[in-house]
Specification:
2 domains; two-stranded parallel sheet; mainly alpha; Rossmann fold
């Protein structure tokens, strides 16, 4: 029996951080054991907002590939590829664009939100409006059953299902309906307590050195009420404690929470435990990063083999799509 198919993508719009690790990559690694997984670097999606300056794009794509491999994705288990190397995504995107009402795209909540939030870029472009449709093409072209994503992506999954249904209504059953596999994970706070995001400059990157990680945690915000060592604190108000909940053992979590409430331990000691645990998770990743960074040819081979494999599946779907739409030759 064949395994259910999973597909997910990640945008190479900057260096990856520990939020991406626990929110996406670790989940992808678990899924590769049970499902037929397709994971890709969504470089065209990155262009929908970062079109004006592509000078760092290659570096970011490489950073994502290296981090995927270093976090445990295995090219023998999962198909790892680059979106722009599988041209069929673009073909399906253009065909789907013919049947997509503008209102559906304009109504996607991320459209107006991001246009308003991102002040330094002009997002009044055709490509940006079409972002969710390109994502629909990514998903439908593999006839994926499950799409592991965060809650922010649910509207994109919804439009994917609607577009797939509309296609099937016009041209006959080609696309199954995909479901989101919601990644249940606490929001990873950044060093300032806000959501970890490169726009806030509060990230712990997978490419940071041990010294940088140590420095970032040592200067992290804690419970703002706890100023002196003898002040009692509330762990729930400290982003350091939120990270303990992700990276420390239950015993350690209890120990630091109790110590915070009673002023039994200081913030420095609490942070030292977190640093130790972060290093434990990051050290094997750093080791593998170094390994892969020294082998550009191997990275190239992995991506080109993965893109070839993905392309095969994608072109099978496209044959069906062309046939369904009467684009398959004259006879
Ligand atoms: N939009 C997704 C994100 O920002 C990335 C993405 C592009 C994606 N295409 C996809 C995710 C297809 C899942 C499936 O996280």
């Amino acid at each position: 029996m064949s395994k259910p198919r999973v597909l997910s993508g990640i945008q190479p719009s900057g260096k990856l951080h520990i939020g991406n690790l626990v929110g996406a990559l670790q989940n992808w690694v678990r899924l590769q054991e049970q499902y037929e997984c397709y994971y890709f670097i969504a470089d065209w999606h990155a262009l929908t907002s970062q079109y004006a300056d592509t000078s760092a794009l290659k570096e970011w794509v490489k950073d994502v590939v290296v981090n995927c491999l270093a976090s445990g994705l295995d090219p023998d288990k999962a198909t790892i590829f680059q979106q722009s190397h599988v041209l069929e995504h673009a073909e399906l995107h253009v065909l789907l664009s013919m049947i997509t009402p503008l209102g559906w795209l304009e109504r996607v909540p991320t459209y107006k939100e991001k246009q308003e939030q991102v002040a330094d870029k002009d997002l009044h472009t055709y490509g940006f409006l079409g972002y969710p449709l390109l994502q629909s093409a990514d998903i439908l072209i593999y006839r994926a059953q499950y799409v592991p994503v965060g809650v922010d992506q649910v509207p994109h999954l919804e439009i994917t299902r609607e577009i797939g249904r509309r296609f099937n209504n016009f041209y006959g059953e080609v696309f199954p309906e995909p479901d989101a596999l919601l990644t249940k994970f606490p929001k990873v706070p950044g060093t300032d307590g806000r959501k970890m995001s490169k726009t806030y400059n509060n990230c712990i990157y997978l490419s940071d050195s041990p010294q940088e990680v140590e420095h970032k945690v040592k200067t992290m915000m804690t419970d703002p009420q706890r100023i002196k060592r003898t002040d009692k604190g509330d762990p729930e108000l400290s982003p350091v404690y939120q990270l303990h909940k992700i990276f420390s053992t239950k015993e350690e979590q209890e120990e630091v929470a109790e110590g915070c409430r009673t002023a039994g331990i200081g913030c420095i000691d609490c942070k030292k435990i977190l640093i130790k645990n972060l290093l434990k998770v990051l050290e094997p990743i750093w080791e593998k990063r170094t390994y892969y960074l020294e082998k550009p040819d191997l990275l190239e081979d992995i991506i080109s083999a993965g893109s070839g494999k993905a392309g095969k599946t994608a072109s099978e779907t496209m044959s069906q799509v062309r046939k369904a739409m009467n684009l398959d030759g004259l006879r």
